[in-house]
Amino acid sequence: MKMLSILAVLATGGAVFFFVLIMFGIFAKAMEQYQERYVNASAADLSDMCLFVDGRQLTVLSVCLCCLLGLVGYFVMNPVIAGLFAICGFFLPLLGVKYLKKKRVNQFNVQLVDALQAMANAFKAGLTFPQAVDQIARDAAPPLSQEFGLFVKESKLGVPLDEALVNMGKRVGSEDLDLVVVATNISRQLGGNMAEMFETIGATIRERFRLEGKIDAITSQGKMQGIVVACMPLVLGVVLNYMRPDLMEPMMNHIFGYVLVGIVFVLEVLGMVIIRKVVSIDV
Question: What predicted TM-score, i.e. pTM, was given to this entire model?
């Protein structure tokens, strides 16, 4: 009997060991693919924004935030909230990078309108294209001065102007700048009035800004309704927990309550995504 017990313990321990080993391999492979697909892309976006952060540092930051928010949720609320906090903490750095990227592109687009008018005036004054860009790079504020400055440095190092423009468009990721790059390269190859071209593109972008502002004002009510509807279950749960904790406590200490909270969270996220898609109009 002792021998059978020992064999059973050894078999169980071996099974657990191989299971943990297999799960560790799967987790390591998943983390590797996650880093290659998302973390390295976020690190490249930060590099394009002149913020040089290694992909491993982003991974470490994600894991640290995951553990920190998970512990906060566990000690403050319950294991279900801890799991949700941990998931949010893991993806928070990548979401922050996307937010910074979008904010930088929007700021660049706003500055680009004035830069196009300044370049048109520079052409009318007799300056060449590299001289006009160099003048704007020295006078403008970041991020436009950073990108135009890199363009000037590339051209001075011997990179063709067409290629330097394409590189700048890839770094910034702005549709407005892509339009400027294509129009500038075609105009330089075929000839044309570049001052008039820049004024026309600037007026087009300015009109698009006006339409986007009008659309944002019209759809702001729908966005606010989505936020109110999404926050209503959370606020209602907090109020009920304050008024009748005896009714809310069993739900937060039972498996069915955890499942219910998870379903509510998933439906809330889906509802917010659908509402954002409905009220989002691309110009």
Answer: 0.73
Backbone angles phi, psi at 49, to 5 degrees: -90, 15
Residue 270, CB-side half-sphere exposure with 13 Å CA sphere: 6
Residues 138, 139, 143, 148, CA torsion sign: negative
Q: Cα–Cα–Cα angle for 183, 185, 188, nearest 5°?
A: 105
**CB neighbours (10 Å) of residue 170?**
12
Between helices 79-124 and 40-48, what is the axis angle to 10°? 30
Q: Is 4 exposed, middle or buried (0-12, 13-18, 19+ CB in 10 A)?
A: exposed
CA atoms of 56 and 131, how far apart (whole Å): 40
Please give the Cα distance from 175 to 178 (Å, whole number).
5
Read off the DSSP letter of residue 174. -
**How many residues comprise the chain?**
283
CB 179 within 8 A of CB 112: no
What CA–CA distance (Å, rounded) separates 35 from 115? 37
Please name the residue that has the structure tokens 């904790």: 245
* Per-residue pLDDT tens over the stretch 246-275: 777 777 777 777 777 778 878 887 887 787
Q: Mind listing the pLDDT tens digit for each residue in 55-113?
A: 677 777 788 888 888 888 777 776 767 777 788 888 888 888 888 888 888 899 989 99
Write out the two tokens for 180: 């400027």
First to last CA, the chain: 78
143 upstream amide cis, omega within 30 of 0: yes
Which residues, other chains included, contact 81 with Cβ-Cβ below 8 Å and sequence gap of 6+? Answer: 73, 74, 261
Residue 277 has a pLDDT of 77
Q: Is the pLDDT of residue 28 over 70?
A: no
